[in-house]
Fold this sequence. Notes:
The chain is of the alpha/beta class. Helix content is about 60%, strand content about 10%.
Amino acid sequence: RGSCSNNLSHRRNHSRYFHCLWHITKHQKMRANIGEKEEEFSALETFQEKMKDIVTGTLLLSSIRLGKELGLFESMVRIGPATSTDLAEITGLSKRYIHEWCIQLTANGVIEYNAESDQFFVPLGIDKVLTSEFGIVPMMCCLSENHTPQYKMLKNAFNEDTGIYWGDMVAAAKCANAFFKPVYENMLQTWIESEPTLRQAMSKEGAHIADIGCGFGASTCRLASLSPNARVLGVDFHPESVEKTMELIFSSNLNNASAIVANAGIWAEKNNYAGCFDVICFFDCYHDARSR
Length: 292
């Protein structure tokens, strides 16, 4: 995982996915004949920026609620600056989840981080807001109960150091596909062309490409269309996602793509696939893998 500062940079860089969509929209504007007036496109960009802030705030609210209900904010205020490891030991919660929680809240300006001491802390003045039983924060946390059905599973993960099964996340696969499909369709070719070695490996006759964590198959199908001489295999442990991938492959008339239900690590080791693939891709799934 690397240092905290690198993790914070990763968190901030993840927002580049949003900016990818802004550029894609510019091209979609031309195709959809929305109009060529600069002010019209400017209004569209402004609106999408607002939507990005709304989505970010919604996701952040669950983490703030966890901080209150699990006593994380109170512990931070009581002991002062502390590393994520110290905070996990004091609260008895999962070290891995606490570390991710601290990074997320720091990246979004809720708490702060001292790089020299590798410690997180609640800024003076904000401590009372985050630990009070009354006010805007507890009110928003209560309202969030109606919008995060998977919150109980998330809270249990903090306590038991377990994960949450992808299939149990409410509409997660559908949301991921809606967000990333236009990114793959509009930018995947540019990514491939920017890496000569990758481009050469994917274009050779009979190349084998694995798409790990293929989801609904948007990346699998795009890879297959960009590499007609290759065989592309989508791999996902979520049966419903693989079913959607196969439907997309069929509807796209791609005869060089397929998908299977499998845990990628176990599947590769069991079948001794080491060295059998020319290219192995991970799209928006690597950060969900548990650290070993």
